[in-house]
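Model: You mentioned two targets. I'll fold them one after the other.
Researcher: Yes, keep them separate.
Model: Target one:
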Amino acid sequence: MLEKLYHYRAKVVSVYDGDTCRVDIDLGLSTWIKQEVIRLFRINAPEVRGEEREAGLRARDYLRELILNKDILLQTIKDRKGKYGRYLGEIWLEIDGQWQNVNDMMVQAGHAVYKDY
């Protein structure tokens, strides 16, 4: 499995909902991918539209507070995109010198649930 994981430094530039964001990805050697849509892997958060709107907005706002405009470590699954063409990824955020998994933090805070793919 490790051979199918890629790690990149990135910056979160927007958060759409509790499990989707856009990032600028540093590929190294002064090469960047801008505005790439990332779907947080293994979790599902309420939608910001429809019946789940209130919970969806809370999840989105929590994720924004955590990662918007912050430098992160992005762990992607090789060649794996979700059904809407978004790369699936784990987001890691350095907090007090320790790398924390944001996907797990969303579940632990009650803003998402684990999802099987």
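Model: Target two:
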Amino acid sequence: MPRAPDPHEPDIVASLERAGELCEDLTPVVYDRLFSEQPEMEVLFWRDQNHQIRGEMLTRVLQAILDFVGERLYSRTLIQSEVVVHEGYDVPPDVFRTFFATVRDSVREVCGDDWRPEWEAAWATTLVDLDWYVTHPDQAMTPA
């Protein structure tokens, strides 16, 4: 049975599209914010001299967010799996869980005065929903 459309999908998509129009590459904005808020994470990127790893990670996160508010074909299990994978990289789950909000805050920053209250509301609800999967990485416990 197809999943009912997420009422927040249009606002999440619109905010990301507007940010994309205003900023050619969100990667430095997101990671500057991340390292400012979580300075202990920067050392984990010591191999990423050309920032390609950061860009690839952000691309996967944005794709996961779009899938999460869209068809939800894979995002729930991807998020749960990545929590476990990132623990292996010494990224604690409580730090991992902040990344989605870091993305939202970066998108809001880039959008500036174009940021809309409905986007804020959509992101707030989506972040709460995403957080469940971050804090419950055991896929056996996930409702069908």
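Researcher: Noted. Anything on target two?
Model: The mean pLDDT is 88.
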